[in-house]
Design a protein that fits this description.
single chain; 14 helices; about 70% helix
């Protein structure tokens, strides 16, 4: 009986590995296809379609993006990196402080604070009032703060961190209070060192949010020197599509043959490249943090 059970367990394990392997290949295939097309010739792609291997390998698309853009795309990279780093650190500080505060059960009105935060998920004033308040009252126009402040707090991330803070034993906080520590000291020297997992998890979410953001640049930024990477590439792609579709006269592009299809894939590669290299380092924290946030007492 035991041998049959052991054989069954091995069979299930093999099936699970095979299934996961096929699933991984299915997920990897679109990425490989994207990279391959970005390095292929536009003419060959138009004639033969997409292929997993580069057809007539060419760097014309990347030359078009980088050379014809000059230093502008490098400047947009700097803007995006600055916004991502500063925005993520600021968002982590604000989110963790609010989450820690409402995780303290003896905090007065903590349920009201949590309700107000949750209320903003369900109801909002709308785009036009939000824009008027942001520009006329907060001065968020053509500045780095316009790319950072509107996305600096997420209620969902706050509740995820609150769940983790609530799982920390109150005895640790009480011991720190007996030693004369105030809540700021408890937060920075007790709560945060015990919460690296949710910090990495929420930090990755915020970093992805800032890295992929182009909407706030579209709304608030007119100065091309402040264009983040995503919005700058969005403009390149929009211009290429407009010329290729005939909405802009062909003469406006000169004698240059625009890589309409391959530029889409190249833009994707340029955008996701840094995140792909970053993700393996924080993956274990991300998975563990999501599981920890799902556990309820």
């Amino acid at each position: 009986m035991d041998q049959n059970k052991s054989l069954g367990d091995k069979l299930v394990t093999v099936i699970a590995y095979v299934f996961i392997g096929f699933f991984a290949i299915a997920c990897l295939y679109p990425l490989l296809l994207t990279v391959s097309v970005s390095f292929s010739s536009e003419q060959v792609i138009a004639k033969n379609g997409y292929s997993i291997l580069p057809q007539s390998p060419s760097l014309d698309t990347y030359k078009y993006i980088f050379i014809h853009s000059g230093t502008k795309i490098l400047r947009s990279y700097v803007v995006t990196i600055f916004v991502t780093v500063v925005g993520t650190l600021g968002a982590l500080l604000i989110t963790s402080m609010i989450a820690f505060a409402i995780s303290i059960k003896k905090l007065k009105y903590r349920n009201i604070i949590a309700f107000i935060c949750n209320f903003t998920i369900i109801f909002s004033a709308g785009l036009i009032p939000w824009y008027i308040v942001s520009v006329n009252y907060y001065g968020l126009k053509n500045s780095m703060m316009a790319l950072i402040l509107p996305a600096i707090f997420s209620v969902w991330n706050m509740f995820l961190m609150r769940t983790y803070f609530s799982s920390i034993s109150p005895a640790l906080y009480e011991a720190a209070e007996i030693d004369g520590a105030n809540y700021f000291t408890i937060f920075f020297k007790v709560a945060l060192p015990l919460s690296t997992t949710p910090l990495f998890t929420v930090g990755l979410m915020y970093a992805l949010q800032y890295w992929n953001d182009w909407w706030h640049a579209l709304i608030f930024i007119n100065n091309r020197d402040l264009f983040p990477l995503q919005y700058y590439l969005f403009n390149i792609l929009s211009n290429v599509n407009a010329i290729s579709s005939g909405r802009i006269p062909a003469g406006a592009a000169g004698n240059l043959t625009l890589p309409a299809e391959t530029v889409k894939m190249a833009v994707t590669v340029i955008t996701i490249g840094p995140i792909i290299f970053l993700y393996p380092f924080v993956q274990r924290f991300f998975v563990h943090g999501i599981m920890a946030g799902a556990i309820k007492e």
